[in-house]
Automatic annotation (TrEMBL):
This is 3-hydroxyacyl-CoA dehydrogenase family protein. Gene3D superfamilies: N-(1-d-carboxylethyl)-l-norvaline Dehydrogenase, domain 2, NAD(P)-binding Rossmann-like Domain. Residues 186-280 form the 3-hydroxyacyl-CoA dehydrogenase C-terminal domain. Residues 4-183 form the 3-hydroxyacyl-CoA dehydrogenase NAD binding domain. Pathway: Lipid metabolism; butanoate metabolism. GO terms for molecular function: (3S)-3-hydroxyacyl-CoA dehydrogenase (NAD+) activity. PANTHER family: 3-HYDROXYACYL-COA DEHYDROGENASE FAMILY PROTEIN, 3-HYDROXYBUTYRYL-COA DEHYDROGENASE. It comes from the Bacteria. It is an enzyme of class 1 (oxidoreductase). The keyword Oxidoreductase applies.
Length: 283
């Protein structure tokens, strides 16, 4: 049974996972590398809770209790007591593998190690540890407090027990789970959105239609809540580029190859909502 959760990374995804975990009653250790990163993450969590209070979705007492359940730290060793560790760091295999090797050393044999990766095969991450059977994917969606889905991803050696721990946690914070039984790069959702998003960027780049009209076509023609270019801006242009590139490198399938426009936007710092400009301006 999961009682204490550690989240590695206090950014948009890690902070969101910590937020829903604390709100659901879990004790949360939130770790990042600098006090400044932790303060930004905690500030975002407080702001989100405040909005929920203003909208009547939680009481002020519940907000204060949830915040009190989050223990921030810059010390990786502090995550050792956790029953479940959820990693939400930069989407590069080398970064994640180095972290999981450290977690393998720090955490007890019974601890389940989970990655929030959206595209990197869990088998590759688990290979950095001596417990690949205890490593599982828990791919949450942004913004975590609002999005209802969680992809649970089996690596080649992921055990039924580890998958059950991940499901218990994800369902415990209010998510509906799907299970990815073979951890192909990109899993289910990132493969689908990457293919659609790369084609949308290519259509824009070649002048076939405007960003607004491409997104309108997907919203009204297919019933999507958001168009693909709006989704890229929300997710982060750099995040989408990394995810699609990871899938392309694994598959060599041209439909996942990033158009030049996407690379130029990342180089210029137009990363979407988080920088104020992407495919759309964000004031």
């Amino acid at each position: 049974m999961v009682q204490q959760v550690a989240v590695i990374g206090a950014g948009l995804m890690g902070g969101g996972i910590a937020q829903v975990a604390a709100q659901a009653g879990y004790d949360v250790i939130l770790r990042d590398v600098t006090p400044e990163a932790l303060e930004r993450g905690l500030g975002a969590i407080r702001t989100s809770y405040d909005r929920f209070v203003d909208k009547g979705r939680m009481t002020a007492d519940d907000r204060d209790a949830a915040l009190a359940r989050i223990t921030p730290t810059t010390d990786l060793e502090a995550v050792a007591p956790a029953d479940l560790v959820v990693e939400a760091v930069f989407e590069k295999l080398e970064v994640k593998a180095e972290l999981f090797a450290e977690l393998d050393r720090i955490c007890g044999d019974g601890t389940t190690l989970a990655s929030n990766t959206s595209a990197i095969p869990i088998t590759s991450i688990a290979a950095a540890t001596s417990r690949p059977e205890r490593v599982v994917g828990t791919h949450f969606f942004s913004p975590v407090p609002m999005m209802r889905l969680c992809e649970l991803v089996r690596g080649y050696k992921t055990s039924d027990e580890a998958l059950a721990v991940a499901r218990e946690f994800a369902e415990g914070v209010g998510k509906t789970c799907i299970v990815v039984n073979r951890d192909v790069a990109g899993f289910v959702t990132t493969r689908l959105i990457s293919a659609l998003a790369m084609e949308a960027v290519a259509l824009l780049e070649s002048g076939v239609a405007s960003a607004e009209d491409i997104d309108t076509a997907c919203r009204l023609g297919f019933g999507h809540a958001m168009g693909p270019l709006e989704t890229i801006d929300l997710t982060g242009v750099d995040i989408m580029l990394n995810a699609a590139t990871n899938v392309y490198l694994d598959t060599q399938d041209e439909k996942f190859a990033a158009p030049e426009l996407l690379r130029r936007m990342v180089a210029a710092g137009d990363l979407g909502r988080k920088t104020g400009r992407g495919f759309y301006p964000h004031g």
